[in-house]
Amino acid sequence: MYDVERIRADFPILAREVNGQPLVYLDNGASAQKPRAVIEAVTLAYSHEYSNVHRGLHYLSNVATEKYEAVRGIIARFLGVADERQIVLNSGTTEGINMVSYGWAMPRMEAGDEIVLSVMEHHANIVPWHFLRERQGVVLKWVDVDATGWLDPQKVIDAIGPKTKLVAITHLSNVLGTVVDVKSICDAARQRGVPVLVDGSQAAVHMPVNLDEMGCDFYTITGHKLYGPSGSGAIFVRKERLAEMRPFMGGGDMIREVTKDAVTYNDPPMKFEAGTPGIVQTIGLGVALDYMMGIGMEAISAHEADLARYAGEQLSGLNWLGLQGTTEGKAAIFSFTMEGAAHAHDISTILDKKGVAVRAGHHCAGPLMEHLGLSATCRASFAMYNTRAEVDTLIEALDLAHDLFA
Ligand SMILES: Cc1ncc(COP(=O)(O)O)c(C=O)c1O
């Protein structure tokens, strides 16, 4: 039995008021709140167990290293990866995709080579590929979504041609909530010898993920959306791709030996982890993932599916709301505009007065906004601790905004 009130009690911030109203936090797509277990782990790490990792031979360095390194295994378990040496720890998705762009794609792509993308990618999965377009003439091939926000996997597969060197695709849209059938795309791409990078920043938060089954080549996660600290994250890199990839940044523990004339590198994944890492952030991420697995990803996903259904019904009852993204089985992420009104920023300001936190803007998805013909939307994005009652509060606050602007 999913006890949402017990889960809420684990997140201290949810008990606070904002603008004199109980907080209704629906900006989880941007960043999620942290459970007490994570807050306490971070405090413990700094107050009792802090040191730099890997290099020291003293007690605290060993404790910090053990705790930090254990997170690699936790992430591997969370993502269904048998061999944890395929997990590169980093600061989040943006770093992960830039690493692939510089370290793997740049040296193996030339003018005219193609990268297939969907139109609903986040800028973090667009701009690193634009670098290759600008600097070496790589072609970006865009696949559209339909009017409901659904991405037909066959369209992605059909876009793969002889010049395609990579498919870079989101697992779950941060604007529309659309879940992409990445398994079919990975299967077809593998048959054509084309690697697939999946942006899992949103999906890993909301549904069970098994990368050994999915068969992708790269999969990114970002800690702050997974109820962990900001500045933490990881990228799964299939071992064949690890062997092909050049290090992106140099320094720290990514080396084996450095002389005046030469450098030799550490084995992967360390080869790709330069400099002092986000030690405490990563330890906090491990605790956050353990917390999620303790509740169970199936249970979280079922709870959020109920919220998605309920919120979908309630929001579509507001006939002055322009809802974007209406696919069957979508995640509980709702983007909308309001008829006759109000810029998205104005709507979110009214909602904020009622204690309801949503995000307004382009959501770092410029090509999708262009496709939708919009400059901005409001986005309510739900998490494991949200409730049906909070959906009702959102609807009341939207009614109020509509009355004000009508
Ligand atoms: C789908 C998606 N990809 C990538 C990112 C970027 O994540 P980060 O800024 O943590 O690197 C986000 C964050 O909003 C996202 O929603």
Structure explained in plain terms:
It is a single chain. With 406 residues, the protein is of the alpha/beta class. The protein folds into two domains: 4-30 and 297-405, Aspartate Aminotransferase, domain 1, CATH 3.90.1150; 39-294, Type I PLP-dependent aspartate aminotransferase-like (Major domain) (Aspartate Aminotransferase, domain 2), CATH 3.40.640. Helix content is 41%, strand content 17%. It has 15 helices and 17 strands. The protein has helices at residues 4-9, 36-48, 59-78, 93-105, 127-136, 153-159, 182-191, 203-206, 211-214, 239-244, 279-295, 297-316, 344-353, 366-372, 388-405, and strands at 17-18, 21-22, 24-25, 87-90, 114-118, 139-143, 164-170, 196-199, 218-222, 233-237, 255-258, 263-265, 321-324, 333-338, 356-357, 359-361, 377-381. Helix 5 links the parallel strand 5 (114-118) and strand 6. Helix 3 (59-78) packs across helix 11 (279-295) and helix 4 runs parallel beside helix 5 (127-136). It is globular, with a radius of gyration of 22 Å. The mean pLDDT is 97. It binds pyridoxal-5'-phosphate. Pyridoxal-5'-phosphate is lined by residues 92-94, 122, 124-125, 170, 174, 199, 201-202, 222, 364. Residues 92-94, 122, 124-125, 170, 174, 199, 201-202, 222, 364 line the site of pyridoxal-5'-phosphate.
